[in-house]
Amino acid sequence: MAERNQVPLKENGLQDGGRHVVALVLARGGSKGIKLKNIKPLAGLPLLGWVLRAAIDSDMFDSVWVSTDHDEIEKVAKTWGAKVHRRSPEVSKDSSSSVETIQEFLRNNTEVDMVCHIQATSPCLHPSHLQNALKIIMEDGYDSVFSVVRRHEFHWKEVKKGSGEMTKPINLVPALRPRRQDWDGELHENGSFYISRRDLIFKENSLQGGKVAYFEMEPEHSVDIDVDIDWPLAEQRVLRYGYFGRGVSLIFCRVSGCLTDGRVFLSVSGEDMVCVHSRDTTGLRMLQNDGVEVVLLSSRDDPVTQSLSGKLRTMLSCEVVDVGDELLKDVQAVMEQRKLSWKNVAYMGNDTSDATCLNLAGLSGVPADASKEASNAASFACRQAAGMGALREFAEHILQQTEKAKTQMKQDRIDRINF
C-alpha cells in the first residue's frame, strides 16, 4: 500500500532547532461505548479517517501515527497514510491512561520532541485548527496547547437525593442572569487535541503543564462521540462542518453494473450488445474536465464488458484495467503506481466484491440497484439505477464535494478575530 508522503515541518518554516513533531492518534480495539468505534463508518468514512486526513493535510508533522492493539485498526490506519505503533498489553487495558500510552510511544521513538495527541472521536477537526495551534507552541514558546470550545451554560451544584441539601448556583447570580449576548461564556476542553513537549509529558506525567495555552475551536467543529446516541448527531454535523480533503484526483468505476444495467441484448446476427447512457459518459467527461483521472474496471471473465471497455477507452481517452478475483490488489496496484492514498480516490461499484474498495475510498458511490453489502459500504447512494444516469449523479456529487473542499480552504484562511 502506498502511503502519502508526509511533509516535514522544517519545510514550511515553522520548525527550528531540528525538532521532530508528530501527530498521534490513540485507537484501542477494546472501546466499550461503541464496539470498534474508531473504524466504524461515519458518513461513509472510518471514524479514524476523518482526523487522519486533517492531520496529514495540515502539512505540519514529520509523521502521523496511530497507536493501536488491533489488526483491523492497523490496516485502516495504514490505508489512510499513517504509521502504526503497536502498543503493548500493559497500556491497552481499560484502566490505561492516554499519558501512559503516549509515554510508551515516546520511549519507542526517541527522536520525537513534540506530540500532538488527536482524539479519533473528533471528526470535525480541520487542518487549520492544527496549523494555528502549532504556531502558538512553536512561535510563542509554550510548553503545551490544548483545544477548547466556548459554551454559554449555567452550572448548579449537584446534591444527593434525600440529603435535604439545597442546590446552589456555581457560575451565576440568578437575580442577575445575563443575556447570552452580554456574557462571554466559559471555555471548556473539547478533547479534540493536545500538543505537548516531550520533556513535559515525562516530567509532569501530563499533557497539560508548564507554560500552557489554549486554542479555541468553534462550536460547530467541537464534536465528540462516546455512546451510540452521539453517532447520528455526529453524522449530521460532519456532513455539514467536516473536512472533506482537497478533492479526489482519480475515480475507479466498474463498467458492468455501473455504466451498464447488466442486460445483454442479442442482435439478429447473433452478436451480444450492451448500452451505455449518454448522461453517464457526460459525467465522466465532467470529471476529466475538472482534472480527475478516470480508470474503468473491466472484468477479465466478461467478453462483452471487455469489448465495451475498449470502445470507452477510445471514446473517453481513459485507462481501462482488467480485474479478476483479487479486485483490491488490482486497484491498489494502480494507486501505488500513481503514489495515491485512498483519501485521494473515488470509487463507484455495485456488487459485494466492491464493498472493501467502497469502504476505503475517500468518496464512494453506488447505483440505486446495488447490492446491500455495497450500499452499506458506500458514502453516497444514487437515486438512479445502473446504466440510467447513476454515474452522472455520482460525478456531480464528487464535483460538489470538491467545490466544498475549496470553499473550506478559503474559509480556513479567514482571520476570524478581525472578521
From TrEMBL:
Q: Which reactions fall under this protein's catalytic activity?
A: an N-acylneuraminate + CTP = a CMP-N-acyl-beta-neuraminate + diphosphate
The secretion signal range is none
Q: Which Pfam families match?
A: CTP_transf_3
Q: Which GO terms describe its biological process?
A: N-acetylneuraminate metabolic process
What InterPro entries does the record point to?
CMP-NeuNAc_synthase, Cytidylyl_trans, HAD-like_sf, HAD_sf, Nucleotide-diphossugar_trans
| SUPFAM superfamilies, A to Z | HAD-like, Nucleotide-diphospho-sugar transferases
UniProtKB keywords = Nucleotidyltransferase, Transferase
The EC designation for this entry is: 2.7.7.43
Coiled coil where?
A: none
Which family is this protein grouped under?
Belongs to the CMP-NeuNAc synthase family.
Q: Under what name is this protein listed? A: N-acylneuraminate cytidylyltransferase
